[in-house]
Amino acid sequence: MFKRSLTPEREPARGAGHESARGRALRAARQALHVLAVELGTPTDPGTPLFGTVQNRWLRRLPYLIAFAFTVTLLPTGISVLSHDYGMNDGLAGALATAQSVPLLLAVTRPLQAWWVIFAADVLGAIALTGADGAVGRPWPWPPTVIVGYLVLMLALALRERNRTLVAVWLATGAAGILFGPLAPERSISTWVLLFVLSGVMLTLGAALRERGRAQRKLREQETISEAERAHRTLLEERTRIARELHDVVAHHMSVITVQAASAPYRIEGMPEAAQEEFGAIAATARESLAEMRRLLGVLRSEETERHHDPEKAPQPGIEQLPKLVEGTVRAGVPVELTLPEEPVVPEPAVDLSAYRIVQEALANVVRHAPGARTRVSVTATADGSRLTVLVVNSAPPAPSAPLEPGGTGHGLIGMRERVRLVDGSLDTGPLPDGGFRVAARLPLTGAVVPATAGAPGSAPPDSASPDSGSADSASPGSPSVRPDPPLSPKDSDSA
């Protein structure tokens, strides 16, 4: 009795379990079919041509040419195969062949919609061939022309649609072939497996090409973003460097003001008490300004400088140091000719430093990108002493050799523009017809042109001021020649 009482209770429970598992499977199948149906009815970017974003004009036209070539080839061939080989009515053969080939033109912009038309036409064609006498011993349900057009369509579809859509198309292709299996004519050659396998291969190949193109586009976008960020970082670094250099220039003058103001009561006898307090206030204000500049400079200094505690203690260079800079460039293998004014100029410290840095960066670019090219550096002042012109012109390299830095981005020009803008000047750069390059900067010159005096601060070095050393003919090979500045030629004047 115990066994009898358990048996009726266990059997309903087991049946309910089977029904529950069967229900879950049916729900999963319905959900999968719903997803496939949604994918088949949701095209990606309809109306956008294949290769529409490619810059090459001929490559953009390639899908249209391929679609047109296959259409004009498959249309008459399909009519001939269906009417002559399979014995189909000419009108029906023409309609089916048109529906199976002409939508390939639509596949260039709307491949999923073209698939619906061609797939429906292929199914109708297979139904029309069922039981036809001409299908005996021939490929069925897909004739050869149908297979070729369908594979071309699969490639266009894979280049555009999502992977789930491609899976749905592939399963629909296989399901259609399986449903036509029992209806196959006698001694016909089954082609549904062939189409199922080849369509899967074409879909996989097209999807791989699509993903590769997408990865390349993302890589180009990242390269563009990285280039913009690198240029911005270079700009910030150059501004920081300019700020440090200006600190050294301004701090010198502020220190002089502080010392003069603090020592004035001791140097000038009989100074009123009000004047002493005024000079004390000036000294205190100068000290506060220096302290504030040092605090701001601490924010701008690079991490490398702060880590090694290696402040820049050397005085900032100027036009007087150009001969030494040119000598170093000559030792690097670049023949440079330096031309300085006959009478030395005394520009403001910021202008003096900017002129030196512009020449320095221009020569560095010659060494990096045009090694061995003859270069001419000219520093001139206008007759009224209002402007200073810095001109660096290099010719093409003597031999076609690879530059030391073939991947240069031209970020050195960013620093030049920042320095020119700092002093309210102008900069002109660009290539020359002979393959060289020109850098011309015009800087405001507020200092007066003073005559050269022996040993006076700011005077030119003896070797650069002597006529012998300034002559181009007397210059030794491989060394820079420093000579008085002749008038600019029309070409140089325009380029400056």
Automatic annotation (TrEMBL):
- Reaction catalyzed: ATP + protein L-histidine = ADP + protein N-phospho-L-histidine
Q: What are the record keywords, sorted?
A: ATP-binding, Coiled coil, Kinase, Membrane, Nucleotide-binding, Phosphoprotein, Transferase, Transmembrane, Transmembrane helix, Two-component regulatory system
Region span, Disordered: 1-22, 452-496
What organism is recorded for this protein? Answer: Streptomyces gilvosporeus
Give the first-level EC class, as a single word. transferase
Q: Which residues form a coiled coil?
A: 218-245
Gene3D superfamilies noted in UniProt:
1.20.5.1930, Histidine kinase-like ATPase, C-terminal domain
Membrane-spanning parts:
62-79, 91-108, 115-136, 142-159, 166-183, 189-209
PANTHER family (UniProt xref): NITRATE/NITRITE SENSOR PROTEIN NARX-RELATED, NITRATE_NITRITE SENSOR PROTEIN NARQ
Its name, as the record gives it, is: histidine kinase
Q: Which domain of life is it from?
A: Bacteria
Naming one, the record's GO cellular component terms include:
membrane
Q: Which InterPro entries match?
A: HATPase_C_sf (IPR036890), HATPase_dom (IPR003594), Sensor_HK_TwoCompSys (IPR050482), Sig_transdc_His_kin_sub3_dim/P (IPR011712)
The Histidine kinase/HSP90-like ATPase domain extends over: 354-446
Q: Give residue ranges for domain Signal transduction histidine kinase subgroup 3 dimerisation and phosphoacceptor.
A: 238-303
- Pfam annotation, one family: HisKA_3
Give EC number(s), comma-separated: 2.7.13.3
A GO molecular-function term, please? phosphorelay sensor kinase activity
